[in-house]
Amino acid sequence: MILVRWQPNIRAIDEARLRRCWTLSRLSREARVSYPTVINLLRGRTKPNFGTLEQLGGALGLSAADLIQIFEEPAGASGNDDGSRAGGFGGPGGWG
């Protein structure tokens, strides 16, 4: 069994922000995402939900493919011996 996990592409978000010469505060306003959420995301302290990524991507002109890094690994490699997914968007079906 192959498990799929994901993580936000923080580098793409930050590079797009810097190309626009936006401060973190401006990104927060433009994306309508709270400033603490933006800070915690870019510092790797939190994993955003898909809605937050959509808002950031929309403000920065980035697609979902630009915002997410997908990794495949053999079952058990992530420490999830029960076969559950190693990461996802939460909610039923994994897209909530």
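The above is record 1. Record 2 follows with the same two-line structure.
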Amino acid sequence: MTSSQASNRTNTVSQLIDARADAVPKSTALIDRGRIWTYAELAAESRRLAGGLLKLGIGSGDRVCPVPYASYRLRPDRGDHDINQYPFSLE
């Protein structure tokens, strides 16, 4: 392992995205369902989402589990609640 690889292990995903956005902002970072995201766009969206999580009281070190709506199945016998009762938005 190189020293560069070792130092990357201590960086957060956000820090790695920001570093790439600084170095090559217009380069393709990912393609999602036909949409091409540049590193600059990905960094901006990452900061937007992080800000939304902070507004919800979720901070550094907190664990979250994103659940795609289509994959969520209610189990009333387990005490599950309908997520539509709790609208969620990062905006």
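The radius of gyration is 17 Å.
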